[in-house]
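Task: sequence design from structure.
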């Protein structure tokens, strides 16, 4: 791997602002991003990336490669949590294993956006329909995680919770209809899918109308969002230190293993290098916004002080600092042989 790719990625403005957020927390600065502003930044990023992806999907059309790629993404989102669950279940209780597995079966929109920024800086072409793959990978992971937890609770109804943090009891009267509704109507998922559909329906005319809002301020607002992510991640790392080395090892190794699956899948689908990197980063990333929000309703026994610091405090910085250039180097090497 070319070390300059890592240096170029680490020294990009979004990554440096993420590091600034980490440092600010560690030195106990009073730097803070108001919650309302952080939420507005999340809404903007999901809207912009979803709309842009819809326009690109309109331009590319539904070719077979698009259909196969979207199908593979959905299937992976459903199956990856099952593999992670089997590993985690060796050391932790079922609800926590299912919650963590669901996060690692889903995706991180910010990691995906950072990968797009990396491809743009290195002038590697990529397709807009990959945004559709990202949007479609949110819900299957949630459903898979809940299925695993429900299956485990029926197998061992007397299991004693091992989490140090007391959790509320599961809501009564909530069936699969409510869980499915939560998975699909989650605000982040709905905004992403809705923007994607609107971008597809409006096509080039919609892009020309919204380009000054969707295209130009994107990088600057991404920097502000990552600054807030750095502040939050630094605070969460303390929780992870209390949970043991096994979860830390999982947070470091699971994205690498899942990236390997993503690269093999991209090669089998015949994707171009840029699209292969985006599919790989979707497989390797872990959700820390949409899925945790859904899990609070769908799987309240899962301890958020475990899955949040793992996905946000370890896997997220690993992927954006080292993972993206590493995966790209492997893809370029394999695609050229």
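Answer:
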């Amino acid at each position: 791997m070319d070390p300059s790719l890592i240096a170029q990625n680490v020294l990009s403005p979004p990554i440096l602002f993420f590091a600034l957020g980490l440092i600010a927390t560690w030195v106990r600065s009073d730097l803070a991003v108001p919650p309302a502003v952080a939420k507005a930044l999340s809404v903007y990023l999901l809207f912009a990336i979803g709309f842009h992806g819809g326009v690109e999907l309109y331009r590319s059309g539904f070719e077979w490669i698009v259909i196969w790629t979207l199908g593979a993404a959905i299937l992976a989102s459903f199956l990856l949590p099952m593999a992670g669950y089997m590993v985690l279940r060796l050391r932790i209780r079922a609800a926590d294993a299912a919650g963590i597995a669901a996060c690692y079966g889903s995706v991180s929109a910010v990691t995906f956006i950072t990968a797009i920024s990396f491809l743009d800086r290195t002038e590697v072409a990529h397709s807009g329909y990959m945004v559709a793959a990202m949007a479609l990978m949110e819900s299957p992971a949630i459903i898979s995680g809940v299925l695993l937890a429900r299956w485990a609770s029926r197998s061992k109804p007397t299991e004693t919770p091992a989490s140090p943090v007391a959790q509320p009891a599961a809501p009564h009267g909530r069936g699969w209809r409510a869980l499915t509704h939560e998975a699909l109507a989650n605000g982040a998922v709905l905004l992403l899918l809705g923007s994607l559909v609107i971008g597809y329906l409006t096509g080039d005319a919609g892009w020309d109308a919204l380009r000054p809002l969707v295209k130009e301020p994107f990088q600057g607002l991404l920097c502000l969002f990552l600054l807030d992510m750095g502040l939050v991640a630094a605070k969460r790392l303390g929780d992870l230190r209390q949970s043991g080395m096994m979860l830390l090892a999982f947070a470091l190794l699971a994205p690498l293993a899942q990236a390997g699956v993503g690269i093999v899948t991209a090669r089998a689908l015949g994707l171009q290098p840029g699209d292969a990197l985006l599919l790989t980063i979707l497989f390797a990333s872990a959700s820390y916004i949409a899925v945790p929000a859904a899990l609070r309703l769908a799987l309240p026994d899962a301890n958020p002080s475990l899955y949040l610091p793992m996905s946000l405090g370890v896997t997220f910085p690993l992927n954006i600092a080292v993972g993206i250039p590493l995966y790209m180097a492997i893809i370029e090497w394999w695609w050229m042989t």
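Residues 304-336 form the longest helix (33 residues).
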